[in-house]
Every structure is written in structure tokens, then in C-alpha cells.
Write a structure and sequence with these properties.
The chain contains seven helices and seven strands. The protein is an alpha/beta fold. It has a single domain, classed as Maf protein (Alpha-Beta Complex), CATH 3.90.950. It is elongated and about 55 Å long. Keywords: Hydrolase.
Amino acid sequence: MNQTSFDLPIILGSSSKYRAEVLRQHHIPFTVRVASIDEKSVGGSYRTQPDPDALTLTVAQAKMDALLATLPTDTQPSLVMTCDQVVSFKGQIREKPETKEKCRLYLESYAEAPAETHSAVVVTNTATGKRVQGVDVARQYFKKIPSNVIQALVDKGDVMHCCGGFLIEDAILHPYMLHREGDDDSIIGMPIKLLRRLLLEASSSM
């Protein structure tokens, strides 16, 4: 897939370096433009009565609304994408850990059950106003992670910026990862198969 397949430039509405890297690996040209929102103020009911798909779609839609509102009127017609992700663990939603202690507890728990990622993508064609959306779900299974490894991950700090407090790209974690249901890019938060479908749908005149 490349830019010429869609005849419109692609705008990534995310500051995530991990999502950007996935797009680069798949040779998808893009620019980045981000509009900040208070994510915790969006989709509250889906947190209290956990619905990870509805929550991520609601947040991604809010990001899209905020981003489109910031685009200058003379912006070239584009395909704009926004994303959101949470982890579901035993029916409970996990976002980015607020504290190191919470991150440690998250990592200690993953030997009990898989971390289930819910990754929402919203794409808008600014030329037509057409907006499409979807959610991809993947599961990562883990061995028991030793306490010294957990401490090393927390001290390193990258996991503090990841939903569920884990990062499959981190080599420190690799020896403790078991099988995966779904694709790496979905666990990372940029599900390419879903994105391909949504970009095509948004580009279509139908």
C-alpha cells in the first residue's frame, strides 16, 4: 500500500512514535498533526461498565473531531486517521499506568491471563467528509515475569507510556512472552489490516 493508491495524503493524528514506526515499516507515507484532548473526560460510562471497544472508538472519534477543527481551511484534501487503545484484563480496562506501583502490579498479573488489546482506528476523508471506523482485538500471553525484570522495565520507563504497562518491542520482555493471538502491529496500537480496509473505505465514493 502506498500514498498513490489513495490519491490523497495521509495525516496521522497521533504523537505515538510506535504507531509512526509501524507505518514506516509498511512504507506508508504520512505527516503528523495532533490535537490534544482530555481523554479521561471522554467515554466515562464505558470505563465504569467496561466496554473497551466502545471506549476506544469514543476516544478516537473525539480525537478526530478535535483534529479536524484545527485544520486550516486551505488544507489539502487528506485522509486523516486517529487511534486509541486500551488493554482488557479479566474484564477490567487498563490504560497507561498512573504510577510505577500500578505498572508493577500490571506486569505481575499477566501470568494469570492474557493482556487483550483493543485498538480503535477512525479515518476521515476531508474531501468528502466520509468517516469510517473499526476496532481490532489481539491477545498477548506471558510467562511469569521475575520481579527483577519487572523492576528493570519500570525503571527504564517506556512501559509507563503504554496501555497495560507493557511493550512487546522491549527486548527485556521477550523471554517472558508466550504465544500471541493477532498481529504485532495490533498489539502496538496500529492494526495495519484494519487500517488498510478503512483507508480504502474512506477513499471510496460509495
